[in-house]
Amino acid sequence: MQSDILDKDIKFLPGIGPRRAELLNSELGIRTFGDLLSYYPYKHVDRTRFYKISQITGDLPYIQLEGTIVHSGITGAGRNKRLTAVISDGTGQLELVWFKGLRWVNDLVRPGKKFLVYGKPTTFNNKVNLVHPEMEDPDKQEKQMRSALQSFYNTSEKLKNNFITSRVISKMQNRLMGLVYGKLEETLPEKLLAKTRLMSINEALLNIHFPQSVEKLKKAEARLKFEELFYLQLNIVRQKAARTGKVRGLPFARVGDLFNRFYHNHLPFELTSAQKRVLKEIRRDTGSGKQMNRLLQGDVGSGKTLVAVMSMLIAADNGYQSALMAPTEILASQHFTTLQKILEGLPLQIGLLTGSTVKKERKILNDKLLSGELNILVGTHALIEETVRFRELGLAIIDEQHRFGVAQRARIWKKNIHPPHVLVMTATPIPRTLAMTVYGDLDVSVIDELPPGRKPVITANYFDNRRERLFGFIRKQIALGRQIYVVYPLIKESEKMDYKDLEDGYESISRAFPPPDYVVAIVHGRMKSEDKETGMQQFVTGRAQILVSTTVIEVGVDVPNASVMVIESAERFGLSQLHQLRGRVGRGADQSYCILMTSHKLSNEARQRIKTMVDTNDGFEIAEADMKLRGPGDMEGTMQSGFPFDLKISHLGRDSRILEYAREQAFIITEDDPMLEKPDNKVLIRQLRRLNPEMEEWSRIS
Ligand code: ADP
Ligand code: MG
Fold this sequence. Notes:
Strand content: 15-25%
CATH superfamily of the domain at 257-447: P-loop containing nucleotide triphosphate hydrolases
Bound molecules: adenosine-5'-diphosphate, magnesium ion
Largest sheet: 7 strands, mixed
Strand order of the largest sheet: 6-7-4-3-2-5-8
Distance between the termini: 36 Å
Radius of gyration: 30 Å
CATH class of the domain at 257-447: Alpha Beta
């Protein structure tokens, strides 16, 4: 009976009807009673607190007051047309202003009428007013679900124009609550509820919309957050169990000649202990008979490539081929060059396949792959095209994972009858809580140590008007034999303008650093790939001292002699991107610098980002800061990966403790009852289906 009512079309809720239902649906995705119930308020305001008009200032948050309209009238014409009403409560007078729905509001706010008024004070021409406040007749307030804490719901401009305001949504909730309260079936197992001492679903939903007290509101939030994160984790835990249970891995039984020869004769330096530890973890996974699905996290410059190389040697020692996939052509060809160099003298064949590999070359590569002659294939996502067939792919490595989605990962699986081992490498430091969730079905290895002798990069913020000083600094560094990156932002929507910035920048740098003393190279996404290659090579070989580019160099590029990273319009970059860019320097033994060029005027958030960069070099700290500033929602596309449903109430950044607890409980339950067959657990399957109708589909891909 409960699910029936939750699935009921929202238009059947008294007072809504088809037109409003349509709007709720298109604007907020609310289709059913259940959807409305889980449309949670974004904040609650204490309704017992009434302000006196004499106390009101422009910097107060949302306030409420009670007063009587003194006079009102429409003034202005065209776009300046507005309705102004003056309200008084005996301590003073306050102006209320509307720009829309004038006629309707005008009929409402007749002089002499009493109102409860809610709104956010703003200051205009040194006068405080309330723009588009919500008005309520104090006598007609709905009594039924009264609560001292008023819920506020997000709405849209379109909804507001159709008079579906936060308060109207609250009234809808009120009506719905009257129908369902006390009748909702529990959505967590009874045992789990008892153990965790969480509030029941009926109480939680009542109190999230109509808090009966501050304590109960807190409990309601805790319960709903737990539930949301618990199901997220349960989903992941089950996927992982399904994979490890079903899929047999290719056994890499031994470490052989290739690995040992490389280790003893080719390795240009001692491995860091973190690199050693990660290699052991990979050895253990690939030798275990299970299929490895591992995420390797390591800050920029921590030496992930070497770990990749040595893992591929283990694969080759066991007669298997490997693939190394990178997100850009530049990075792929750089990996190819590195591999050729450090593996020189070993009996291995390495190939490079990218979008610009010509047909003839492709054919040769394909033949060698099928015959097994080719041991290692490096490339871009050209690697996962149908036409590329391996004899026996044993290990697939994906560099800089955040550029690839789950779907691409899944395609690698289909390359063999037996799925290869998969190693995903990322320098985007992901906070633990997020890794647990986004990559919840991957095992995680961390390189938490940089190769010895690295000096932390010194980061400074220069305002645009100190360009002369910047050039002076660059000149000095070049005189010391160093190389310089200058990076310009490129944001799709305004491509033309961005390219103009880049080109102007290139010109002014070329003028300040003229030949024959200086060579300035340029690389950007619009160049042909051979021109890109030429520009890059000029810089890699040291012929060019300065490389002007867009963010094409963001990931992976390795030029140890480069010691200065200048980032133009740094305020336009996100934190993780800034950190990635900075990671391009500080790779050699020299002191390196990162100069963030910004304008004088910065938004608060931009200022915070720049400050974080100046204050710390620690990728994990930066990731945490990033998540607090932005929320995880748009972390470099990481999110498309693991998320079967939207988070409605919890926040991965702020609710990390609840997340960990929920994950623990999800593990305990699945261990005790892997198929979730016990009567108490029936509710779990039902809820999983409800939250994530495509679940069966999901468990099949990684
Ligand atoms: P990332 O983890 O960002 O991919 P790379 O693999 O490109 O980092 O390594 C960065 C630099 O550090 C490279 O020049 C590499 O040769 C060097 N490197 C890697 N491991 C070590 C080590 N154990 N000792 C010294 N240098 C190392
Ligand atoms: Mg790398």
